[in-house]
Specification:
- There is one protein chain.
- By secondary structure, the chain is of the alpha/beta class.
- The protein has two domains: 47-222, Alpha-Beta Barrel (TIM Barrel), CATH 3.20.20.370; 234-262, no CATH class.
- It is built from eight helices and seven strands, in the order ααβαβαβαβαββαβα.
- The termini are far apart.
């Protein structure tokens, strides 16, 4: 039991997802002087740090992080979903946010939801179709994509599509069938999935030991306050409720008659 708990601590260190903590992480990354964009990395690149965001539930929270990065002189990649149940990336408000992020110098990509598709050719066709939709609607050239909860089959396939960058391409991500804590990877991948650090923590010591790094952050986890898992979801639900209330109030005259009773 003790061994198991120690293993969990090693693999999943505590995450403090506050804006102040994020500013500290950005400072550490900036000091490394090897933050690069996917497009600038080749098979000959010996050192890099990639900073990526998969936008799952809140485009507004992604926007907030993008402003913090911009103020720090840092640009990163934001991958957004076309098929998402919690935000409409094609709404005017969302598109305005995307365009502002793009003007800040950030890269916009597609966060592709497999939605049960397993055939590799159909996956490719869907990615091409969704990147075109996103590009046409936003007016931004979409040249990259990441997968939402990719299967091992998808990672193993190292899918390549002409003109598009796969965030899980072997140049940026090392796929291992059964990864262990001691597994040596050419590209070290760390993420804040499940509201905790997985596979490493972005500190100066970590970067000193790993020359090629891809960092994945999920903006919905990060707030000014730095909530724990429970209170983060509580705050996210309240934010979504507020957006729905504002939308109803602006588009339904009869909603105003009863909104104060809700």
């Amino acid at each position: 039991m003790v061994i198991s708990m120690l293993s969990d601590i090693i693999m999943c260190p505590k995450l403090i997802p506050s804006f102040d903590e994020y500013k500290s992480i950005l400072h550490t990354i900036a000091c490394e002087s090897r933050l690069m964009d996917y497009a600038d990395i080749t098979n000959k690149t010996r050192e890099f740090i990639i900073l990526r965001h998969d936008v799952e539930f809140s485009i507004e929270r992604a926007w907030a992080l993008s402003k913090i990065e911009h103020a720090a002189g840092i640009s990163s990649s934001y991958f957004v979903q076309v098929t998402n149940n919690t935000y409409n990336i094609l709404s005017k408000k969302s598109l305005d946010i995307l365009r502002d992020m793009h003007l800040q110098g950030h890269h916009i990509g597609l966060h592709f939801h497999l939605n049960g598709i397993s055939n590799l050719e159909k996956i490719k066709e869907s990615i091409v179709r969704e990147t075109k939709i996103l590009s046409d609607m936003s007016g931004i050239k979409i040249d990259r994509y990441s997968f939402h909860r990719p299967t091992k089959d998808v990672l193993r396939a190292n899918i390549g599509i002409k003109g598009l960058i796969n965030a899980y391409d072997k140049k940026y991500f090392t796929f291992v069938e059964d990864i262990q804590p001691e597994t040596i990877l050419e590209v070290k991948y760390i993420a804040d999935s499940m509201h905790q650090w997985n596979y490493g923590v972005p500190t100066a010591d970590f970067f000193a030991k790993n020359k090629k790094v891809q960092i994945l952050l999920h903006p919905y986890s990060w707030t000014h306050e730095g909530y724990d898992n429970l209170n983060n979801f509580r705050s996210l639900i309240l934010e979504k409720q507020k957006i729905l209330m504002e939308t109803l109030d602006s588009e339904c005259k009869h909603f105003g008659e009863i909104k104060d009773a809700l």
